[in-house]
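Form 7-S
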Amino acid sequence: MSGFSDRDAVIVGAVRTPVGKGKANGALHGVLPADLLAHSLRELTARTGVDPAQVDDVIAGAVTQVGDQAVNIARNALLGAGFPETVPATTVDRQCGSSQQAVSFAAHGVLAGAYDIVIAAGVESMSRVPMGSSVLPGSDPFGTDMAARYPDGLVPQGISAELIAAKWHLSRSQLDEFSAGSHEKAAAAAKAGRFDAELAPIAGLTSDEIVRPGTTVETLAGLRPAFYTEAYAARFPQINWDITAGNSSPLSDGSAAVMITSGATARRLGLKPLARIHTTVAVGSDPLYMLTGVIPATEKVLQRAGLTLSDIDLFEVNEAFAPVVLSWSADTGADLAKVNVNGGAIAIGHPLGASGARIMTTLVHALEQRGARYGLQTMCEAGGMANATIIERL
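Output:
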């Protein structure tokens, strides 16, 4: 492993809640989102031993910023966590990549000399704040100019996933096999205690609630297509209708938080850096095939880092849908044996605004457990975007 410089942005702590089912019967449904995020913030400062008064800023991702997640939830959560009133906070939205973008913004602030200590975090309670509920009846968040640019109209993410499966010739059995593998890996990781160091139990939930040990291709094969409509079937005759609840990420609740400092601050406070933020990028991509941005994002981050695919020891590619990871692997040539080694969002869950920080937390700990050097994380995002981040274990 390499050393780190005083100017490097280094991760000194990363925690997450277990992920709960994003439904009314989920274990975390009774926890307000601000309290869910406050829990991760409290745990992070307690585990690192950093006085919250020393935190320069909290940047948190949240996608559906309405109802219980409205009014700058990052600020409300830090006050609920007992941080001093002098600590500011802001909430960002880059859709599913919101808290991965929060990590990038935090690292950029450290590298620019604007922060000594900053927390990047994320939260989403999909059981309390349903996806899409910020779009009010009669509203038009896209505008007439965008509609003129895409006269045939864009599509929901599930249809994008179907289009990707068709374009990359991915069969239903391939999708289901990958998805069953996600559950198998996540269940094995939990049983072996590989999540223990990153988890901050809450509301009696001590492990990820959605993981289903024993999931098989045969059981998944019995599920019906989740996004079929006659209108889309007529518009896209190439679709085979293979996307189901079993090869998609489920509705989820959760939060996560990552503390980033300068190398000099880590040395001054006696903090042990787990990894340094090596390189970050964000890209735009085709908003119809909106989930494919992970492919150019991976290419761009590797080029900017001066690394090759073979240099990367572990990959985390968000499993919004199985075709996302399989098409990414097909185009990049990445070895799937290095991808989501402790399972991914299909099994663990995808609490939208929290997922970037959740995956970063899992990646940091996985690198540590395996004695590996480089990790690459990438996430597709609604509207046709993606983030990619490379970290280096220290």
